[in-house]
Amino acid sequence: MAEDPVPPLREAGETADELVQAARGGDQAAFGRLVEMHQRPLTRLTHRLLGDRDEADGAVQDTFIKAWRSIRTFRGECRFGTWLARIAVNQCRDQLQRKRLVVAEGQLGPESRDGKGGSVLERAVDPSPDLEEQAVGRELARKIAEHIGGLPDMQREVFALRYYEDRPLAEIAALFGVSIGTVKTHLFRATHRIRKALEAIYGPRLPIS
Hints:
Elements: H1 16-24, H2 28-50, H3 53-69, H4 80-98, H5 100-104, H6 120-124, H7 131-149, H8 153-163, H9 169-176, H10 180-202
Helix pairs in contact: 1-2, 2-3, 2-4, 3-4, 4-9, 7-10, 8-10, 9-10
């Protein structure tokens, strides 16, 4: 009589919570599934905070290493993805602090050269097909990048998470362990500082709709 085949380590339909629970018990295969589930959004987040694809990839790798080492400390007070994002943001903070001279000069980080036409902030302006308006959009995005780079860490991160990651305020608050009101305050201050800086260049009517 033939032996029954060895069952897969994890069932394809297993939920994220079940995978987390298994990973907390030392199941590396379950953690590998979690890596597959969260790698893309974490890479997008770190890229938008750092502005460099290679640095973003390195930050994500370090995030997963730290997450695996501390997985047993995760108690489910927030979503697992939010917990990972918190680690990733801290990784980005550490990298930006090591590049403080660059940040102090008003840059969020080196502009991405991923073949999509400039930095992520440039792409966020969403210019129209008109060539002149495209040029204005790129110039404006560069100015935004300069001023975002000069913001305090919390304001820069909240601004990026809200406007470039479209994260809900409640999730951002959970990520940093603060109230929604605190997130709103940082978001207001960041937006106000950027708008005032742009108005000093372009006047009260900014070249965007």
